[in-house]
């Protein structure tokens, strides 16, 4: 069970950094919007054909770090693996995560800006959590 301070922190708005291992290279790291779920998973979206989507499949080990930008400095670092990959749903996934980060009006405007939209939803099962400042 995740500590309440970690749950509270992950439910705040932070742009996370997702890192994925690559053979014989440094890890691929990229910023992502994420949503923490009460079942102790985290999900994010990635468009097909992107570097990150090409590097991930079910079982792929990843790390994700969410942090504050100001004092007092805090972060949550997660080690986990991809539990599920599913076709993204515009209403359930894109609109909900867009509203989380941009507010209702901004999220709706962001969704409306797409003529077409295709993305996959990646769910991370959390294996280990490390924190600082919580």
Concise structural overview:
The chain is an alpha+beta fold. It has helices at 4-11, 51-55, 90-112; strands spanning 16-22, 25-32, 35-37, 41-46, 61-67, 75-87, 120-132. It has a single domain, classed as Pnp Oxidase, Chain A.
Structural features:
alpha+beta; 7 strands
Structural summary, described in words:
It is a single chain. The protein has 134 residues and is of the alpha+beta class. The chain has one domain: Pnp Oxidase, Chain A. The chain has three helices and seven strands, in the order αββββαββαβ. The protein has a seven-stranded antiparallel sheet with strand order 2-1-5-6-7-4-3. The mean pLDDT is 94.
Helix content: 25-40%
**How many domains?**
1
- Beginning-to-end CA distance, first to last residue: 16 Å
- Any low-confidence stretches, pLDDT <50, length ≥5? none
Architecture per CATH nomenclature, i.e. the level-2 architecture: Roll
Range of strand content: 35-45%
- SS field, number of helical segments: 3
- What is the gyration radius calculated from CA atoms? 15 Å
CATH class bucket = Mainly Beta
SS-based class? alpha+beta
The number of E-state strands comes to 7
């Amino acid at each position: 069970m995740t500590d309440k301070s970690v749950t509270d922190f992950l439910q705040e708005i932070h742009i996370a950094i997702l890192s994925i291992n690559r053979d014989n290279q440094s890890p691929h790291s990229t910023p992502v919007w994420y949503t923490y779920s009460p079942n102790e998973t985290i999900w994010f979206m990635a468009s097909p054909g992107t570097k990150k989507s090409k590097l991930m499949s079910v079982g792929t080990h990843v790390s994700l770090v969410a942090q504050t930008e100001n004092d007092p400095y805090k972060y949550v670092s997660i080690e986990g693996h991809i539990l599920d990959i599913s076709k993204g749903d515009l209403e359930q996934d894109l609109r909900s995560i867009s509203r989380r980060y941009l507010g209702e009006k901004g999220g709706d405007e962001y969704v409306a800006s797409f003529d077409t939209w295709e993305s996959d939803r990646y769910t991370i099962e959390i294996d280990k959590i490390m924190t600082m400042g919580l």
